[in-house]
Amino acid sequence: MGQRIHFVVDPQGWCCMGLIIFVWLYNTIFIPKVILFPHYEEGNISVVAVLCYYFCSLFCVASLFRASVADPGKLPENPKIPITEREYWELCNKCNMMRPKRSHHCSRCGHCVRRMDHHCPWINNCVGEDNHWLFLQLCFYTQILSSYTLILDFCHYYYFLPLKKENWDVFVFRHELALLRISAFMGLIILGGISRLFYTQLMGIFTDTTSIEKMSNCCEDISRPRKPWQQTFSEVFGTHWKILWFIPFRQRQPLRVPYHFANHV
């Protein structure tokens, strides 16, 4: 999709990402088999509900894989610094390379990342200028998919009519209660954790501040011009078209950020 592939060799990150993929596969396989397809065949739900679940699942896994392999904004070894912007660059005291201000050195990845927010083991990658928008989409669609799954689990027992054509010889129906309890437990855990993370990310965009900058300047009030929230979101997603903020199947076009708005660390 026009983006450079970025692969981090980190066993801990592989385990975390593998756990996320397992949860996604579990719900994508068992929820349709136990709830969606049987209730659709008996007329309790419409085909729209089935398609919406698969669309949410597709967008969730697409943003996960793209956020994990997208280049977060890794600086090249010999960056070309425009003469007019040299005063906005600084020397990294860890890798001894020049970098734009608001960049940060990731000790896990071993290089500097432009406007780095944090290193996320759940995607096995840094969250930086070039993949922050994908990370936000991942948080957003994970919340929707988890909420949708919990609603289906609840409706299956307390709202939908009992199924008439259950095949008790099939594994998913013989262990239906256990499978849905596991699904509900995982949904609650993920929804609670991702909602808090998503809220933190949104507040960072509203204030035009990264997580690292918040920790570095937690006791310092930095006076700088405030940009409208539409502008900060457009810079993160690379477009002023709000509908495109929700689509992971595209290429981000970076918008130039005036340096006098920067919050330097």
Automatic annotation (TrEMBL):
<dbReference type="InterPro" id="IPR001594">
    <property type="entry name" value="Palmitoyltrfase_DHHC"/>
</dbReference>
<protein>
    <recommendedName>
        <fullName>Palmitoyltransferase</fullName>
        <ecNumber>2.3.1.225</ecNumber>
    </recommendedName>
</protein>
<dbReference type="GO" id="GO:0016020">
    <property type="term" value="C:membrane"/>
</dbReference>
<keyword id="KW-1133">Transmembrane helix</keyword>
<feature type="transmembrane region" description="Helical">
    <location>
        <begin position="12"/>
        <end position="31"/>
    </location>
</feature>
<feature type="domain" description="Palmitoyltransferase DHHC">
    <location>
        <begin position="89"/>
        <end position="216"/>
    </location>
</feature>
<feature type="transmembrane region" description="Helical">
    <location>
        <begin position="179"/>
        <end position="199"/>
    </location>
</feature>
<keyword id="KW-0012">Acyltransferase</keyword>
<keyword id="KW-0812">Transmembrane</keyword>
<dbReference type="GO" id="GO:0005783">
    <property type="term" value="C:endoplasmic reticulum"/>
</dbReference>
<dbReference type="GO" id="GO:0005794">
    <property type="term" value="C:Golgi apparatus"/>
</dbReference>
<keyword id="KW-0808">Transferase</keyword>
<keyword id="KW-0472">Membrane</keyword>
<dbReference type="InterPro" id="IPR039859">
    <property type="entry name" value="PFA4/ZDH16/20/ERF2-like"/>
</dbReference>
<feature type="transmembrane region" description="Helical">
    <location>
        <begin position="138"/>
        <end position="159"/>
    </location>
</feature>
<dbReference type="GO" id="GO:0006612">
    <property type="term" value="P:protein targeting to membrane"/>
</dbReference>
<comment type="similarity">
    <text>Belongs to the DHHC palmitoyltransferase family.</text>
</comment>
<dbReference type="GO" id="GO:0019706">
    <property type="term" value="F:protein-cysteine S-palmitoyltransferase activity"/>
</dbReference>
<feature type="transmembrane region" description="Helical">
    <location>
        <begin position="43"/>
        <end position="65"/>
    </location>
</feature>
<dbReference type="Pfam" id="PF01529">
    <property type="entry name" value="DHHC"/>
</dbReference>
